[in-house]
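Supplementary Methods, section 5.1.

A reviewer requested that the exact input to the structure prediction be made available. We therefore reproduce it here, unchanged from the version used in the analyses.
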Amino acid sequence: MARIDVLADTSGLIALLDRDDRHYQAAIDVARANTLTVPSTVLPEVDYLVSKYLGEAVAQAFIQDLADGYFNYLTVELEDIRSALDVMTRYKGVPLGLVDASLVALAERYHLPSILTLDRRHFSLIKPRGLEYLELLP
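The structure derived from this sequence is encoded token-by-token as follows.
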């Protein structure tokens, strides 16, 4: 099976970093089989939550792995912020914050339908422009 780029949401990254998470092994399997792409918008959430619940050492190890190239890093540009706002407007009834909406905007812009996330409730309601669906992993 060919490796594909998978956008990483905060919840998917936390599952990947927390050995006690019930989705840990599934997240590891996704990471081993694919290339995880970490959008810049998820970093503050991941850093805060991992530092708070898993410790600063785990948060710093993740950031070091990102800096060392174990993950792709994708900067969210102003056009992506505008697209994220458009996503939030299109899905007014769905409580999408900037992070989730930015993942949808990036999926649309780069034609990346796969997202590592545990947030099925919100992402399953989204029909991205230019894509048939969002594949929610694991």
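The chain has one domain: 5-137. These observations are discussed further in the main text.
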